[in-house]
């Protein structure tokens, strides 16, 4: 299948590439993000590469049943990026969509508008399924997929060769011909204003720049011995946790945050919300603090901030948290945050050296916190 002609979208027009697009194409592809997430591209991407793409590459895509379009400003005709689909499987009515947006046009909704326009057109003229594959570490592309009506389906392991001789996992999204194309609702929305704060502590999303901090926290024996599994995490696990934190948040499975001392701006600890049972509206929280910041009420404040956000902004109705029977300090944190002891679960958690550990479970209900209000008494 192939598509010809122009396609109008909201604030964009998809048109044929022209020879005078060559400089913009070269500049767009010779970009750090393109080099990172499009490893088949030559690096550096020169004007000669752009000329060859316009002379041969575009024609080749159409010859194989795909499509390749320039994304242009509908008023000025300025080139904003490129979009198309390839890897067409005719018998399945399936193809893979891909795009790029020049650095000069980012942050304006160009990618979402272009993906939505091409997807709607292609799925309305013969294709039954379009896939959008993106790296774990490319949350911007994942946001585009969700906004353009693509549902997250899973992860394809080692799906793409990278520039270092290895292979990268890709997160898979898909949109079907009978999907409405509306933005996909998110189980865990973004924080209002990008953070939560009560003036004493501030919670911000965990990110790639926090690898050193998380390594420090997770290397503490009292932290890793009560983690699952109960062992110091390998460096790769820590790196993945930080680099993929936003992807997990977008998937609606967990929200990882850094607890920051609002007075100094220093990271003091971490807290995570794990949305384990969306069907029942139950989620779990867990937290860890650096020794220098313990005993100052930071964990209690963080737990309350997370709970207030979860109950107000999501469908979560029930928050649980667990501690070891001997961890009186953590139990006190939860009690001050409004949690009530609910159960004693014997041998629930794996312990060091093949042992099993009991778990004391606490619960906080939406109506309890929203009725009683925060308890910030220490």
TrEMBL record:
Q: Which domain of life is it from?
A: Bacteria
Q: Which GO terms describe its molecular function?
A: protein N-terminal-serine acetyltransferase activity; protein-N-terminal-alanine acetyltransferase activity
Entry GO terms, CC: cytoplasm
- N-acetyltransferase domain spans which residues? 12-177, 201-367
What name appears for this protein in its UniProt entry?
N-acetyltransferase domain-containing protein
Q: Which organism is it from?
A: Paractinoplanes tereljensis
């Amino acid at each position: 299948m192939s598509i010809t002609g122009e396609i109008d979208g909201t604030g964009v027009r998809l048109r044929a590439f022209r020879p005078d697009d060559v400089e913009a194409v070269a500049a767009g592809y010779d970009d750090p993000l393109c080099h990172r997430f499009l490893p088949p591209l030559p690096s550096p991407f020169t004007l000669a590469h752009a000329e060859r793409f316009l002379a041969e590459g575009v024609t080749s895509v159409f010859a194989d049943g795909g499509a390749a379009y320039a994304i242009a400003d509908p008023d000025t005709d300025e080139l904003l990026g490129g979009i198309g689909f390839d890897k067409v499987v005719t018998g399945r009515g399936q193809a893979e969509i891909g795009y790029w947006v020049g650095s000069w046009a980012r942050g304006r909704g160009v990618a979402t508008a272009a993906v939505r326009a091409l997807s709607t057109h292609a799925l309305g003229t013969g294709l039954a399924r379009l896939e959008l594959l993106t790296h774990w570490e490319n949350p911007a592309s994942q946001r585009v997929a969700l906004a353009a009506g693509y549902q997250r389906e899973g992860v394809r392991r080692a799906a793409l060769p990278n520039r270092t001789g290895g292979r990268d996992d890709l997160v898979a999204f898909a949109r079907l011909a009978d999907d409405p194309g509306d933005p996909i609702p998110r189980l865990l929305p973004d924080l209002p204003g990008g953070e939560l704060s009560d003036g004493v502590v501030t919670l911000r999303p965990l990110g790639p720049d926090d690898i050193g901090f998380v390594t420090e926290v997770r290397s503490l024996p009292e932290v890793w011995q009560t983690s699952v599994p109960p062992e110091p995490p390998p460096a790769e696990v820590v790196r993945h946790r930080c680099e993929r934190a936003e992807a997990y948040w977008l998937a609606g499975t967990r929200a990882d945050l850094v607890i920051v001392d609002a007075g100094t701006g220093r990271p003091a600890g971490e807290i995570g919300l794990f949305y384990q049972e969306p069907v029942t509206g139950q989620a779990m929280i867990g937290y860890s603090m650096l020794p220098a910041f313990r005993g100052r009420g930071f964990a209690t404040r963080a737990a309350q901030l997370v709970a207030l956000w979860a109950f107000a902004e999501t469908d979560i109705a029930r928050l649980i948290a667990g501690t070891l029977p001997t961890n009186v300090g953590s139990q006190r944190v939860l009690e001050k945050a409004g949690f009530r002891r609910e159960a004693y679960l014997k041998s629930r958690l794996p312990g060091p050296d093949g042992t099993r550990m009991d778990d004391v479970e606490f619960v906080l209900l939406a109506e309890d916190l929203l009725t009683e209000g925060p308890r910030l008494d220490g």
